[in-house]
Amino acid sequence: MQIPEAFKEKMRGLLSDEDYEKLMTSYDGTVNKGIRTNTLKCTPEEMAQKTPFELEPVDWCPTGYYIDSDIRPGKNPAYYAGLYYVQEPTAMTSAEALAPEPGDWVLDLCAAPGGKSTQLACKLEGQGLLVANELVNNRAEILASNVERMGVANALLFNEFPERLAARFHERFDKILVDAPCSGEGMFRKDNGAAEEWNPERVVNCAKRQLKILESVDKLLKPGGIVVYSTCTFSPEENEQVIEDFLGNNRYELMDIDLRGLDDRGRPEWSEKGTPALTKTLHVMPFHVRGEGHFIAKLRKTAACPLEEEPLKLKGKSRLKPAGRRDLDDYETFAKAYLNRRFGNLHLQGDQLYSLPEGITLRDIEGLKVLRPGIHLGALKKNRFEPSHTLAMVLRPEDFKTIYTVRDEEEAYTYLKGEPIIGTDLKGWVLVCFDKWPLGFGKASQGMIKNHFPKGLRIRKK
Ligand SMILES: C[S@@+](CC[C@H](N)C(=O)[O-])C[C@H]1O[C@@H](n2cnc3c(N)ncnc32)[C@H](O)[C@@H]1O
């Protein structure tokens, strides 16, 4: 890996000789890999039973574990059942610092691929709302797929500019995470491209963009609400200086961050004005801990922000409409035959049926680019309802009347490859489970289960 000379020079100026040498040596090491338990589905102990690799606890995240760097955790049935999320250990810090509570309205403004969104969802325990937003289209689809796999039931996903969300959700959120797009200096070891793309102008441009994103946060956050700002870079321009500029223009106070094993405080001397409270921010440096590197700041909003005189206009009608009773005949027939759980706030987009999160109305989403308006329950076909994979992933076995539990890992792979399962006397829709965790749907008849695991997710080989 080629570390840019200008970066080396900059870090040599910022760090002590000893720390600089340690940083450079850290680039010769291997990338730290981690997984985090999806507590919406299982406990860490249950996850450990279903994963064949060694797990070593991460200090600052009670559900995070280091795994050996040779392991490919995305190849395991437990992965497809959503028992864990593969996440770099220092990336687990931001959601821990924000610490939402069940019932909160939480916004993750820069969300793809979804590591922190799914971690926030665990903390909400299915209560309250998670709005996860990703601006870049193809990354947004990856976010949707991860939120689906983890079985998050109370999420609304957008593919939007922060300022457009701010025009609709004025001071509606209790907590906001800004895991900002950055120059990625903490990604050099993990992603060679990050080192190749790095240059001093990029750092300056990232800082401008970060400040602009934070301006939208001020409009979105309730007075008294909390925002965590994080980056995976070391540069003062994108860390201490962004926070100092934001504090200068808005009424916020920095809060202490208390995460086990982390005590490398932000440096006022790396900012323009030397704001003393910057010591409340946190650096997570790859030469102090086992991880790639992060910066976190936690701030409380101390005063309301006025409504804009000329707010941005959001045009366009939503293609969603509330589902009427007659629209739902086929869904109700399906629900009566198979579901032990009710879904509310039902809306249709064409023939696709969604359950919107509690408290969300069409007025909230009209004119915005919605990626997923809630749980995609399935499609109303001619005279029948076809359940979606998303529905399978939010269910627990007790929510469905016909369950097929795969006999062993081998049979789990058979299902995940898209092959039929032979030898059953079940009939109709079946929730195929790996132990007590759904993998997806199948349809049983004549002694076999036809596979409904989505084609795009199927694995080719173990
Ligand atoms: C550091 S990544 C987020 C990682 C994510 N939080 C996770 O844990 O998986 C930053 C994200 O911000 C998105 N982004 C880029 N420009 C943006 C902008 N102007 N406003 C908001 N998000 C932006 C990027 O596409 C990227 O997905």
TrEMBL record:
Domain SAM-dependent MTase RsmB/NOP-type: 1-302
Membership in a protein family: Belongs to the class I-like SAM-binding methyltransferase superfamily. RsmB/NOP family.
The keyword Nucleus appears for this protein: no
Residues that, per the record, bind S-adenosyl-L-methionine: 110-116, 134, 179
An example Gene Ontology molecular-function term: RNA binding
Annotated catalytic residues: 232
The species this protein was found in: Eubacterium maltosivorans
Entry-linked NCBIfam families: nop2p (TIGR00446)
Pfam family, one: Methyltranf_PUA
Keywords noted in UniProt: Cytoplasm, Methyltransferase, RNA-binding, S-adenosyl-L-methionine, Transferase
PROSITE patterns in alphabetical order: NOL1_NOP2_SUN, SAM_MT_RSMB_NOP
SUPFAM superfamilies the UniProt entry points to: S-adenosyl-L-methionine-dependent methyltransferases
One record GO biological process: RNA methylation
Protein name per Swiss-Prot or TrEMBL: NOL1/NOP2/sun family putative RNA methylase
